[in-house]
Each structure stands twice: as structure tokens, then as C-alpha cells.
Specification:
The structure holds 2 protein chains of 2 kinds. Chain A is of the alpha+beta class. Helices cover 36% and strands 28% of the residues of chain A. In chain A, the strands form 2 sheets. In chain A, strands 6, 7, 8, 9, 10, 11 and 12 form a 7-stranded antiparallel sheet that branches. A 5-stranded mixed sheet of chain A has the order 1-2-3-4-5. In chain A, strand 2, helix 1 and strand 3 form a beta-alpha-beta unit. The radius of gyration of chain A is 22 Å and the shape is elongated. Chain B has a single domain, classed as Response regulator (Rossmann fold, 3-Layer(aba) Sandwich). A 5-stranded parallel sheet of chain B has the order 2-1-3-4-5, with helices on both faces. The chains are: A alpha+beta, B alpha/beta. Chains A and B meet through helix 5, helix 6, helix 7 and helix 8 of A and helix 1 of B.
Chain lengths: 276, 131
């Protein structure tokens, strides 16, 4: 049997690993997984076990996970379970094992449990997927080469960073916020002109929703990466706000991380706000 | 590949995306393209079409009637059930792909995409229906 016979996605992040399990975890396939897992449980890293896509977990598996937790404790590392289904929680409770495990709602809570999040707003594990997605979306959809500049924390009371913004709410079990991409008018017109293969000289109703669509694509790409790691972010529909010095109401209740981008068609900003 | 005269229905609540998908279809040689701004309008267009549509390219995430709702409605309609259907979405998560497959989608394309990406998907759909 090889690792391919035991489906498991492994995500390596700074200071911890996320092991994502799939399907039915029964006693018959446990031994194979033990062999596959042994390479990860000795890496001197905290481990988050993502059970979002696990259909069921046998008692043998729970006992083995307890053993992994104990082994990690001996190495002064922690293990926690994330995205545990209610039915699994009930099984654990029935067996008196619910308090034996550290159960976190999602990976963000797990990182806090591991003591890895000191400043939530500067958590690169969360921010980087949005930056990567921005570069990818603009490259593929508009043939625009962009470069991220230096990240800074923006005062929420400050006016918007552009003339047109796509805004999308970030909703998960433990935090809310929003992601905004703000363009100066000229940059936006250049991007849309390249995207649609026609020259646009002014902001019209025909193209204004493009800011929302670009935001939607960036959000979708980043969400897939983050949810694979266990963030549990829900689907959302974007909105567009335009006008000189416009303000974004949903950004007024939290700290805002702003990332300036430069590109061959002009500059723009990606801003991420987490309000709780 | 599909005949360039194939009637295509492009469904998206975002005008920019409708323009983009239509533009890429035109670049691929298609000439008969109709646009609908959501699933409800698309259903009316499908129901009242004087000649049937040969391909639907629909966004997933739309208010009121989503692309998935439209697909399910289509697949349960005796007259329209066998219309090739491609879902376009910004969501790339495994459980969503599974949900779309269960509902009977023929192909699933994740935004952002370029001309080659759409061509590959359409070729696969055509092959499936030609078999």
C-alpha cells in the first residue's frame, strides 16, 4: 500500500501542519494511515486534523488520534481537531472523549490554540492567498502583470483608496470582515479594456460591475485555498461602490490591511478588514 | 467541436461577465449568442425559444435563481433535459464540483479562464454528446 491508497491532503504552514482526511475512517484502513502519518507526527510541529470531509470516524481512529496527541505533547506540541461535524461531536461525547481532544471551530482558532497568532491582522497565512489570487486573476483574465508592494495598516476612517471598489463580505464561524479591491478610474478602464478586448474611456453601467466580478474571482480563488486549510469561509456575492473619495461602510469597524499593487496598466489596492 | 452556428445561451448577473463569455465564444467562432441576466430570464428564453439552444454557459452564483437551480430545473424538464450545460464559477471547492456533477452538469469552468480553457471544456462537452 502506498500513500495514494490513504487519501490525505497535507498543508504546511509556519509552525504547524494541517492534515485533511477524507471519507470513511474505519479500523481496517487505520494501520495504513498510521504509516503515512508517522512522517508528519515527528516533525516538531503542531498538527490540526481537518475532519470537514471525513464521513465517519471509528473508535479505533479516535483512540489512535488520542495517541498522536499524547506523542505530540511529549514533544511539547499540540494537536487539535477542526471542522468536526455535530454527529462526530456527539459520538465523542457518548464515549466520554469530547473533553480529551482540543476541538477548534476552524484553522484560525487552531492557530490561536497553538499560540501562533500574535497579531491577527498580520497573519500572512490568511493574507497571502488573497495576494496570490490577485496576481493570478489579473494575469489570466486581463493579461496584466502586477506586483504587490509593502503591506500597511490603514486607518478605517481614511477615505477609499480609489475611484471604484469591488467589495465582498468574508463570513466564517469565528470571524467576519470584507475584502476590497480599489482601482483609480484609469487603472480600472485599462484592466476592463484588456479583459473585454474593447477600449473603454469612461466608467459606464456596462462595465462597472467588472470591479465586483474581479473581486469575486479573487475571493473565490483565495477562499478555496483557505477552506482547504480549514478556515470555513462561506460563499458571498460582491457589490460595487464608486465615486471620488468613496467610503466603504463595512470597513469602518475593524483594522484594515492595505496592500498597494503596481502594474503595467496602473496601480490599485487590495484591502482586507477583519472585524471580529 | 460544436458547430459555429450552435445557439448559445450565456447566463450571468454581471454584465461584464456576459460580455466576457460572449467575447470568448465569438473568438472561438460562434455567431448565435443570446445573453440572460439571471436564471429566471434564462428559463424564459429557453422555454420560449423558437429554435432550441444547443449549449448553455451559466454562472453559478446569481441572486434569485442560481446556475445550479437553473441546471436542476433544466434536467427535470422532458423537452430541455438534454441541453449541454457548462457552469462558470469563481468557486473551486471540491464539494461544489461534486454538487454540480450530481445535478448533471456537463463541464465546470473556474474563473479566471482564457480562450483555451473554454475551448477545452467545450470540446469535452461536444465529445460527450457526440458519443
Amino acid at each position: 500500500m502506498s500513500a495514494a491508497d490513504y487519501p490525505c491532503k497535507v498543508h504546511t504552514s509556519e509552525g504547524f501542519l494541517t492534515l485533511q482526511l477524507f471519507g470513511v475512517l474505519h479500523n481496517d484502513n487505520l494501520k495504513g494511515y498510521e504509516d503515512v502519518f508517522s512522517q508528519y507526527t515527528t516533525q516538531q510541529a503542531h498538527i490540526a486534523i481537518n475532519l470537514e470531509h471525513a464521513v465517519s470516524v471509528s473508535m479505533g481512529w479516535w483512540r489512535w488520534l488520542l495517541k498522536v496527541q499524547t506523542d505530540l505533547k511529549a514533544l511539547q506540541k499540540k494537536m487539535c481537531l477542526i471542522l468536526v461535524k455535530p454527529q462526530m461531536r456527539n459520538e465523542l461525547k457518548k464515549e466520554g472523549l469530547d473533553t480529551a481532544f482540543t476541538i477548534c471551530a476552524n484553522i484560525r482558532d487552531a492557530q490561536t490554540e497553538f499560540g501562533l497568532i500574535k497579531n491577527k491582522m498580520l497573519d500572512t497565512d490568511f493574507i497571502n492567498p488573497f495576494l496570490d489570487a490577485t496576481l493570478h486573476v489579473l494575469k489570466v483574465q486581463s493579461q496584466v502583470d502586477a506586483v504587490a508592494g509593502k503591506i500597511f495598516i490603514k486607518n478605517p476612517a481614511t477615505k477609499g483608496s480609489g475611484d471604484i471598489s469591488g467589495v465582498i463580505g468574508v463570513v466564517s464561524e469565528t470571524f467576519n470582515g470584507c475584502v476590497v479591491i480599489s482601482f483609480p478610474e484609469k487603472t480600472f478602464l485599462n484592466i476592463i479594456s484588456k479583459m473585454l478586448g474593447e477600449s473603454y474611456q469612461e466608467l459606464t453601467q456596462d462595465i462597472i460591475d467588472g470591479a465586483g466580478e474581479i473581486t469575486n474571482m479573487i475571493f473565490g480563488q483565495a477562499k478555496a485555498v483557505l477552506n482547504d486549510k480549514g478556515y470555513g469561509i462561506q460563499m458571498a456575492i460582491p457589490t460595487v461602490i464608486s465615486g471620488k473619495d468613496h467610503t466603504i461602510q463595512s470597513m469602518s469597524k475593524g483594522t484594515v490591511i492595505s496592500v498597494p499593487f503596481s502594474s503595467n496598466v496602473g496601480g490599485f489596492f487590495v484591502e482586507i478588514c477583519i472585524s471580529k | 467541436m460544436f458547430d459555429p452556428k450552435t445557439r448559445i445561451l450565456v447566463v450571468d448577473d454581471m454584465m461584464t461577465m456576459r460580455k466576457l463569455v460572449s467575447k470568448v465564444c465569438k473568438e472561438l467562432g460562434f455567431t448565435d449568442i443570446t445573453e440572460a441576466a439571471d436564471g429566471t430570464i434564462a428559463w424564459e428564453a429557453l422555454s420560449n425559444a423558437p429554435s432550441p439552444f444547443g449549449l448553455i454557459i451559466s454562472d453559478w452564483n446569481m441572486p434569485n435563481c442560481t446556475g445550479l437551480d437553473l441546471l436542476k430545473r433544466l434536467r427535470s424538464d422532458g423537452r430541455l433535459a438534454k441541453t449541454p450545460f457548462v457552469l462558470v464559477t469563481a468557486e473551486a471547492e471540491q464539494h461544489q464540483v461534486v454538487e454540480a456533477m450530481k445535478a448533471g452538469v456537463d463541464q465546470y469552468i473556474v474563473k479566471p479562464f482564457n480562450q483555451d480553457d473554454l475551448k477545452t471544456k467545450l470540446e469535452a462537452v461536444h465529445k460527450k454528446y457526440a458519443a
